[in-house]
Hints:
Elements: E1 5-13, E2 19-26, E3 31-35, H1 42-57, H2 65-75, H3 82-103, H4 107-111, E4 119-127, H5 130-142, E5 147-152, E6 179-182, H6 184-202, E7 207-211, H7 218-228, E8 235-237, H8 248-254, E9 259-261, H9 272-276, E10 282-283, H10 292-305, E11 309-312, H11 320-332, E12 336-340, H12 348-351, E13 352-354, E14 357-359, E15 362-364, E16 373-375, H13 377-381, E17 392-395, E18 400-401
Parallel strand pairs: 4-5, 4-12, 5-7, 6-17, 7-8, 8-9, 9-10, 10-11, 11-12
Antiparallel strand pairs: 1-2, 2-3, 4-15, 13-16, 14-15, 17-18
Helix pairs in contact: 1-3, 2-3, 3-10, 5-6, 6-7, 7-8
This protein binds (2S,3R,4R)-2,3,4,5-tetrahydroxy-N-oxo-pentanamide and cobalt (II) ion.
(2S,3R,4R)-2,3,4,5-tetrahydroxy-N-oxo-pentanamide binds next to loops.
Amino acid sequence: MADRITAARVIVTSPGQNYVTLKLETASGLSGIGDATLNGRELAVASYLEDHIVPMLIGRDPARIEDTWQYLYKGAYWRRGPVTMTAIAAVDVALWDIKAKAAGMPLYQLLGGASREHMLCYTHADGTDIAHALEAVETKRQRGFRAIRVQAGVPGLKRIYGVHAPGESHDAPQDAPSEGDWDTPAYLRLAPQLFAAVRDRFGPELTVLHDAHHRLSPNEAAQLGRSLEPYGLFWLEDSVPAEDQAAWRRLRQMTTTPLAVGEVFNSIWDAQTLITERLIDYIRSTIVHAGGITHVRRIADLAALHNVRTGFHGAADISPVTMGAALHFGRWVPNFGIQEYAAHPAQASEVFTWDWSFADGYLHSGEAPGHGVTIDETAAARYPYKRRYLDVNRLKDGTMWDW
Ligand code: EZ4
Ligand code: CO
């Protein structure tokens, strides 16, 4: 007889970072969890799940992952969007977790088995100026990282993306976003100096990456890509806002620096032009924000047909649950590129346990049945939700800009 879902709970917790987790339980005694964290808009997804999806799940056969995905996607009528697709992802990942546990297998076995034993990852190094950024790179190298994203403060700007101000809290509740400032010409002067200094100190072999966080026009991004060509980046990320996929045609023709985009995408349609016209090298859509394993698998397959590799988002707001699912996915996916990995806050390990691990520059999926991540609901309750926002950004004259 088919199993059925008997309980579905949304767990909101803030162990140094807000995380939203969906836990499903079945009549046969299995349970599975999926991540539903949408940074800065967490409670919208929690409500979407609790108020609209949970009642539909009770009684359903957990084995019917594809049908449930279509039921939630087509059934909503209102297609796509980050809130909907994150909620669907949470259900999808919890169901894959349950199916793999029912089979007694690590999740990557259900996807088709291992294509590799471990996954290359990159972490972040940043500094308020170039000298501090170089020190941060050295610290990360000593921890074993082989690939490092480097960001540095720009002279004349108060705060910029990816650069932590000393003593800044990431955990205090907020009633409004922090504001940064922005000056594209100053940034375009700084970036090649930064990577010249990185190559000068660390040599040609270190794998380095950079994130422009959606701030440039296609022409500015082309200038940046060209100015970074001598330093052989693994990728330049999010140089141009990608809502206008066609804008990337010009950028692609102007530079040979490899291009990555997609952490804010929530469906295959956001990347269709970019992938099929081969305008990017790496697709960064994540399992949590793009409809779960069921949908990201379709994105990865489309990418494989067009010589585009994966490079999933993995900042600290990507919970340990998504990291577990992503590493099982990465173990299988034939066109794996790299996995981003920024360590989670220390308290997260009181709330979640995980089977994945980092060693010597690589991430390992673990071999536990399912995706190998669990949540302790009692510990989660010790860290109540705190309202937090992603930053906003303004030009010197006050104009709102992309963050
Ligand atoms: O801004 O995770 O590549 N990583 C990034 C991140 C994102 C945050 C958004 O929640 O760009 O820092
Ligand atoms: Co990014």
